[in-house]
Amino acid sequence: MDCLIVGAGFAGAVCARELADAGHTVLVIDKRKHIAGNAYDRLDAHGVLIHQYGPHIFHTNSDKVFEYLSRFTEWRPYEHRVLAVPDVRSGRSYPLPINRTTINQLYGLDLDEAGIAAFLERSREPRDPIRTSEDVVLNSVGPDLCNKFFRGYTRKQWGRDLSELSGGVAARIPTRCNDDDRYFTDRFQAMPLHGYTAMFERLLDHPGIDVRTGIAYEQIVSSADCRMTIFSGPIDAYYDHRFGPLPYRSLRFEHEHLAGTAQLQSVGTVNYPNDHDYTRITEFKHLTGQQHAGSSIVREYPSADGDPYYPIPNPANEALFKRYEALAEAENDVYFIGRLAQYRYYNMDQVVAAALALSRRLNAEHAVTPAHAHYQTTASAALGA
Ligand code: FAD
Ligand code: UDP
Fold first, then answer.
1. Is the CB of 157 within 6 Å of ligand 2?
2. In CA terms, which of 37, 167, 307, 384 is 20 to 30 Å from 217?
3. How many CB atoms lie within 10 A of CB 266?
4. What is the tens place of the pLDDT at every residue in 208-252?
C-alpha cells in the first residue's frame, strides 16, 4: 500500500478518504475492534443508541468541515443544553454556561442583561495577565461562582487545581449576560442522523481503503511496507516514551439502562461539580432524538489510569510535547495528526480540519503519477484484489 494509517478515528478516517480519493491505496488499522475512535456509537443491549466513550456533540463554525462531513451523513439538528447541580442536597440545577437565569435563580435576583453585567463586574477578580484556568474563571465571574461551578468539577475532572491548568481549558465555557442556555453557539450544531459509526462506515467505504480493526501498530510495524505512515495514537507511545510519558487524563464510563424510564433528566447532560465521583450524567436520547420506552445514560468517572482521552494542557506538558514534536518534525514519511498525536484538546471539527489540511498537503507532495497508478493496478491484480 502507499500509506499506513494508524487509528480509525476522525484524524485517520478523514486522511484515509482524502488520500484514497486522490488515487492512493491506504491501509487503516485500529487496535480497537471498531472504527470511529472515541466517537464510536452503537445500539446497547436494549436497542438504545449510545456513545461508548462518552457524549459526542457535533458543533462547528467551519462551513468547510460541515460540508465535508455532509458527504457522508445526513444530520439531525440538535442544540446541547447542560444543567449544573452545585449542591445535591438542595437538588437545584442551574443553566451552564452561567447566564442571566443562573445568576438570578442562584441569588434570588431579577436582573436584566445590564444588571447581570454590573453584577459580574462587581463579582469578578480582574487578573492580568491571564495564564491559568483559575485566572480565566476568577477574571470573569469571581470566587463564589468559581467555587460553585468550576473548582470542584475541575479538580475531579483533571486531578489538578484550576491554577495548574492552562487558561484554554476553562475558557471553553463562556459567561453570558443573556438568557441563551445552549452549551455551544456555533453556526452548525447537529448530530449525524444515523450516528457517528454509520458516518464513518461511509467515510471509509472506498475501493482504495482497506480497514483492519483489532490490530495495533506495534504488531505490524516491522512488516509494514508503505511510502508513508500517518499516526493518530499518542505521540509519546510512538517514541517509546523516550522523554518520559506525556500525561493524559482518562475516564471510566459507567453505562446504565433505565427500563421503563422514558426520560431521566430534562436536558442532555447534568453536571455535578461538588458531589459524587463522577462529573456528569448524559442521557443519550436527548442527543439522538430516539424514541424508546426506556432510557440509557452514562456517568463519567475521571481517572489517572486507563486509556488516554484528554491531553492535560499546562506549560510543563506542552514543553514535553514540544520535545516529541521535534522528533516528529525530523521524520521523512511519518506524520502525526489528531488529539493524542498533536497533544491538543481538539474538538471533533478541529480534528477534521487538521486532517483535511494534512492530507491535502500530502496529496500535493505525493501526487499519484500515471506510472505509480499503473504499478498499483498491476500489484492489486497480482494480489487478486
Ligand atoms: P481518536 O478518536 O482517539 O482516534 C485515535 C484512534 O487511534 C483510536 O481509535 C485508537 O484506538 C487508535 N490507536 C491509538 N494507538 C494505536 C496503536 N498503537 N495502534 C493502533 N491503533 C491505535 N468533541 C466534540 O467535538 N464534541 C464533543 O461533544 C466531544 N465530547 C467528547 C467527550 C469525551 C468523553 C471525549 C474523551 C472526547 C470528546 N470530544 C468531543 C473530542 C473527540 O473525541 C475528539 O476530538 C476526536 O474523537 C479525536 O479524533 P482522533 O482521530 O484524533 O482520536
Ligand atoms: N468545567 C467546570 N465545570 C463544569 C463544566 C466545565 O469546571 O460544570 C471546566 C472543567 O475544567 C472542564 C472544562 O471546563 O474540564 C471544559 O469543559 P467541557 O464541558 O468543554 O469538557 P469536555 O466536554 O471536553 O469534557
1. yes
2. 384
3. 11
4. 999 999 999 999 988 878 899 999 999 999 999 999 999 999 999
pTM of the model: 0.96
Interval 38-73: pLDDT, tens: 999 999 999 999 999 999 999 999 999 999 999 999
User: DSSP characters for 64-127?
Assistant: HHHHHHHTT--EEE---BEEE-S-TTT---EEES--HHHHHHHHT----HHHHHHHHHHH----
Question: CATH fold of 1-35+204-247+312-385, please?
Answer: Rossmann fold (3.40.50)
355 vs 19: CA distance, rounded Å: 11
How far apart are the C-alpha atoms of 358 and 230, rounded to whole Å?
A: 10
Q: Which three cell numbers stand for residue 351?
A: 480534528
Q: Ligand 1 pocket test: which of 4, 31, 38, 279 has the largest number of ligand atoms within 8 Å of its C-beta? A: 38
Among protein residues, the one with the nearest Cα to ligand 1's atom 16 is: 233
Q: Is 189 helix (H, G, I), strand (E, B) or coil?
A: strand
Q: For residues 258 and 256, what is the distance between their CA atoms, to the nearest angstrom?
A: 6
